[in-house]
Amino acid sequence: MEQLLRDAAARSIRYLEGLAERRVHPDEATLAGLEALDGALPEEPRDPAVVLAELDEHGSPATVASAGPRYFGFVIGGVLPAPLAASWLANAWDQNAGMVAASPVAARLEEIALRWLVELLGLPAGTGGAFVTGATAANVCGLVAARHALLERAGWDVEAKGLFGAPELRVVVGEEVHLSVRKALGLVGLGRERVEQVPADEQGRLRAAELPALDERTILCLQAGNVNSGAFDPFEEVAARAREAGAWVHVDGAFGLWARASPELAPLARGLEHADSWCTDGHKWLNVPYDSGLAFVRRPEHLVAAMAGHAAYLSESEAREPWHTTPEMSRRARGVEVWAALRSLGRRGLAELLERCCALARRFATGARELGFEVRNDVVLNQVLVDLGGEEETAAALDHLQREGTFWAGGTRWRGAAPMRVSFSSWATGEEDVDRSLAVLARWREARDAAGRRPG
Ligand SMILES: *Cc1c(COP(=O)(O)O)cnc(C)c1O
Known about the structure:
Elements: H1 2-18, H2 28-32, H3 48-59, H4 81-93, H5 104-120, E1 128-132, H6 135-153, H7 158-161, E2 170-174, H8 179-187, E3 196-198, E4 218-223, H9 235-244, E5 248-252, E6 277-281, E7 293-297, H10 300-307, H11 334-370, E8 374-375, E9 383-387, H12 391-404, E10 410-411, E11 420-423, H13 431-450
Parallel strand pairs: 2-3, 2-4, 4-5, 5-6
Antiparallel strand pairs: 1-7, 6-7, 8-9, 9-11, 10-11
């Protein structure tokens, strides 16, 4: 065991040391090399050291260097040293974080991390939460709590009877609602399409003036951090008003909720504290290992009512039982990594990480404009949408840039355009990475212009 784990550590260190200089996305030949890991189901045992060597030799080069400094795709985040190391240790612990009885340490670390997060994000005192796989699952947690609360008030026990014959609930979403909220609505029986949709403005923010009248049978889903533009819904205008009407306000803040942890960015999310439930991701901007999502519920008893269960063989303590807050029973100890990230960064370190990413986004936007490209969004957070000269030209550029390998960004559709979508969410990215990436963009532009096409 010892030799094997030392070997794993050495290989991991070598991998991480190579991240900054290797190509960001694996090329076709490297991906073809994954064949070596295939073959018939092994009949006989094999030396674990050989298994690890195979995995490293063929698997490591085929990874996407999203933990490295120049991965700007989606909103992925890197991995900070403390939570990575804590994750290694926690894997050795092999704790089942579902029950206090199965892992007092995992349960305790969740409680501590949760308390810190509620304070850091400025959520109401007494807010409870759950450690789940990602923001999609965290959206499910928020919505089942909402479903329980609104139907309980209407005299309906939804956990016992389901939605058959239940009083109807309304769901109001912004036009730019994330697909994971729609998916979660489908999973909890409220329907992906059976929603009232409020138009959005040019940055993707729900238009407060067009919000329909809300009532005590309505769930209003708002968004902190539009997945394309990074924009925030106008919480201050709508959240308190919605709660006064008796509606349940749920916020998808998969990456944008973290703005609350920075004095500089927090004004973007002002008023968000008036909501009833929130979700965010640890694996994105907090830079903990995959997977790690967080759900928060103002009145945790609504979440517990939906998630808890009882069985004679399961001990139940007076303490917060983790599995009474999540869809899962058994699961890994995600709280360990969240605790380690917060313990190592501190309030100031996290604020600096968030603000640095936003400064890098502005730097990229400025550089792109200087190269003659149009930036399609107000760069308020960590997202930049760059039009590289129309839909076809942008698609061709992305194809070239992704193959070139210095950095990786994807495309999207946004308000009638099809720009490159560049996202900054890794602690590992520095100004030099932005500049190196812009230099590649400049060379592509020169080559394009030299080829006789119209300059951007
Ligand atoms: C990433 C994202 C999600 C989904 O999060 P997962 O962790 O992938 O489940 C939901 N909403 C927004 C705004 C996101 O950016």
